[in-house]
Amino acid sequence: MTNQKVLYPLTNPIKSYAWGHRDTLPALLHYNNPNKSPQAELWMGAHPQSPSTTIHQDQSIPLPDLLALDPTHFLGDNHGTSLPFLFKILAIKDPLSLQVHPEKALAEAGFIQENLQHIPLDDAKRTYKDSNDKTEMLYAYSDDVWALVGFRPYADTISDLQAIASPTLQTLLLPFSQNPSPHTLEQFLVALLTAEASHKNQILHDILIHKASLPILNDRWQWLSTLHQHYPQDIAILAPLYMNLLHLPKGDALFVPSGTLHAYLQGTGIEIMAASDNVVRFGLTEKYVDLASLSRVVTFDAQKPHILPASHNQPFSTPPCSFTFTHMTKDQSYTLPANNPAQIILVLNGSATITNPILHISYALNAGQSIFIPYNAGSYHIEHHGELFIATTYT
Ligand SMILES: [Zn+2]
Q1: Are residues 377 and 312 in the same domain?
Q2: Which residues bind Zn(2+) (predicted)?
Q3: What separation in Å is there between the alpha carbon of 10 and the centre of ligand 1?
């Protein structure tokens, strides 16, 4: 089978998390959603929890099982036995949780630890579902993508928080405001997020009084207000006051290394990440919140968001990681050389034809369809009248 130069159209699972938009994915991918259930994420890849499937020898087969038949053929040498990236579309109606993805060493240790504790992989309190880090990148497909990512310059956080008449909050803030550093910011956030309920309620009460006194709500206070509507009891709604608030321009991408605190708030995004489902949550969720991990997994430096400016027809310039990502604009054609890294191509907003003229093999893809191209697929000609989004193994 290793000489087969065939490609693999994918059937991809949809995740119906409650924050998902009902209509965005059905419209983009051309399917019906008669129950109007939330359609949050499309997953393209070989993650064991929810793999794509394809057809091999007239049989449906999960992508990981296909790759395992001949990893060298499908992935090339030195790329292990599974796809190192996971490719997604996110349709965000309501804000996602405040979260971080652990670095590799922490993921390995956490995965072993939770195995030793016999916490089942599907248990709500299971944080480490695999031993991988999860650097990720979010491409803004719509023009309303908003996110919280990393910490603001300390002076900005301190001046915004000091303006709030709340003795309880000011007491917690004092070590940080007197001596701003990653360590005192960590102290402040641990104290805030783990404060006893009466203190949290007092701070939330004071925050709302302050909000009511503002003549206009700037974007930070607007988002704080939105978060409060979703999670009225959750002290994590203060995040817009100490994190970078970002309206990501359409076509640009946000690179989020492991250890960076983030919450995606709104919009349609295309996401590519290391093939991991390790998420440590600190708030803005009904799911399990693991505050004991905060100090261990979060980087507390003030960092500007790492924005990758729009790039067309050549890969976004990510730092070294598990993937590369390319946006091909409409009405182009190109030749994919032999022995290109394994990749998944997604077509949106039009169609594409992928042809091997020597072997007389051709694949027609419509908007919303995707295809896996093995490392050893040989050379193909690609002509497209839609936008292509290409996820590849980083080389
Ligand atoms: Zn994330």
Answers
A1: no
A2: 99, 101, 136, 262
A3: 24
